[in-house]
Design a protein that fits this description.
388 residues; Methylamine Dehydrogenase, Chain H; four-stranded antiparallel sheet; 3% helix; Host-pathogen_enzymatic-act; WD40/YVTN_repeat-like_dom_sf; N2O_reductase_N; Lactonase, 7-bladed beta-propeller; signal
């Protein structure tokens, strides 16, 4: 089924009635990239990508409310989309485009588009496209909903965006001098953390009345820190290490940063698993969730570290300390991770399984598979609730 026909079918299925005050989960579906039996990337013909939107008023059973035929790329952190605090807008960055080459094959090239979607409409609708830096990857929106930051991987920069109602504009570009893949803003809106993937560092930015500047301070953050996030109290930063950007059979940690210290510093590493991809903190601040690739798609079929499933690792956050609480199998090649707004449920987007796993988060630190996986029309390269 072609994308536009699929979107039309989805719109007919979900209807046009609005849902006031809905919490929205955004899922980016990338149909262009697959892995072969040797664990190598294969680029397929483009044209079937989607971005889907789910209402979380019943967090145990997310309800599909619409979809848009927007280009999306799994290459880049699974944080390339975000929702404003008032749930009125979704910002969706596309990292790569596909170009034809000789022999009917395709190659990826950096994109520079950020899509702005009106979430108050049912179904949600695209209202504008903003040009940002080259290969936009991670996104963050501050708690006021008026400032957004975009990590431009190929551009080695941060795009600064102002948000006024439905008007989203680039106001500045901050040079970072290294590839940047993810960004998170502190709850007070005064600082941001930026993952410098190839430099193995997390940089600190200062924010003052919409003006963003590098502080010149960087923390060593393990091997290939990919996704960075911050606890709701602003005390702790977390960065997920991929080890070497894909599965290799060796465990990788989550880097723990003390943001209360002056200057902030790395204070711990918590073992997570083979290649930490997604990383998110619960709105309650009591747990974090990491998705682990676990050789579940990017390893050769006969490799010793190939597994049928990926993993979700729950990390307990208590008194500034991070510890491993539980691990559960999810679908293959889990990318994005998210919590429901009340923190009672967690979701993983399983790229190779074309599903979203719905997990119940117990107060005692256990993850429970609800066995209510959401079937998707393609591989979920990114998944987000809110912004951080």
């Amino acid at each position: 089924m072609k994308t536009r026909s699929l979107v039309a079918a989805i719109i007919l299925a979900v209807g046009f009635s609005g849902v006031a005050g809905a919490q929205v989960m955004v899922v980016g579906i990338d149909t262009k990239l697959v892995f072969n039996d040797q664990g190598q990337r294969v680029n397929r013909q483009p044209g079937e990508d989607l971005v889907q939107f789910y209402d979380l008023k019943d967090p145990a059973h997310p309800e599909l409310i619409g979809a848009l035929p927007l280009t999306n790329s799994v290459v880049g952190p699974p944080t390339n989309l975000a929702v404003t605090p008032d749930q009125s807008l979704a910002l969706i960055a596309n990292s790569l485009n596909w170009q034809p080459v000789d022999g009917g094959t395709w190659k990826p090239v950096p994109d520079d588009r950020l899509f702005v979607v009106d979430l108050t409409a049912r179904p949600p609708k695209l209202i504008s496209t903003v040009k940002v830096g080259s290969q936009p990857s991670g996104l963050a929106i501050d708690r006021t909903g008026t400032l957004a930051l975009v990590a431009n991987r190929d551009g080695k920069s941060i795009s600064v965006l102002s948000i006024h109602g439905q008007d989203v504009q680039v106001t500045d570009t901050v040079q970072m001098n290294d590839e940047v893949t993810s960004v998170a803003i502190t709850p007070d809106g005064k600082r941001a953390l930026v993952a410098k993937f190839l430099a193995h560092k997390v940089a600190v930015l200062s924010i003052d009345d919409g003006h963003v500047q590098p502080t010149g301070y960087e923390m060593p953050a393990g091997l290939f820190p990919y996704t960075v996030t911050i606890t709701p109290d602003g005390y702790t930063g977390l960065a997920g290490n991929t080890g070497k950007a894909d599965s290799n059979g060796n465990v990788d940690p989550v880097t723990v940063m003390d943001l209360q210290a002056s200057p902030p510093r790395v204070v711990d590493y918590v073992t997570a698993g083979d290649s930490v991809e997604g990383l998110v903190v619960s709105p309650r601040g009591d747990f974090a969730l990491a998705t682990i690739l676990n050789g579940s798609y990017d390893a050769a079929i006969d490799s010793w570290f190939r597994h049928k499933t990926g993993l979700a690792v729950l990390l307990r956050i208590k008194n500034g300390r991070i510890s491993r609480a539980d691990t559960i199998e999810v679908g293959a090649f889990p990318e994005g991770a998210a919590f429901s707004p009340d923190g009672r449920y967690a979701y993983t987007g399983n790229y190779a399984s074309n599903t979203i796993s719905v997990l119940r988060v117990q107060r005692d630190g256990h993850l429970v598979d609800t066995h209510a996986d959401i079937a998707l029309p393609g591989p979920p390269g990114s998944l987000r609730v809110g912004s951080q």
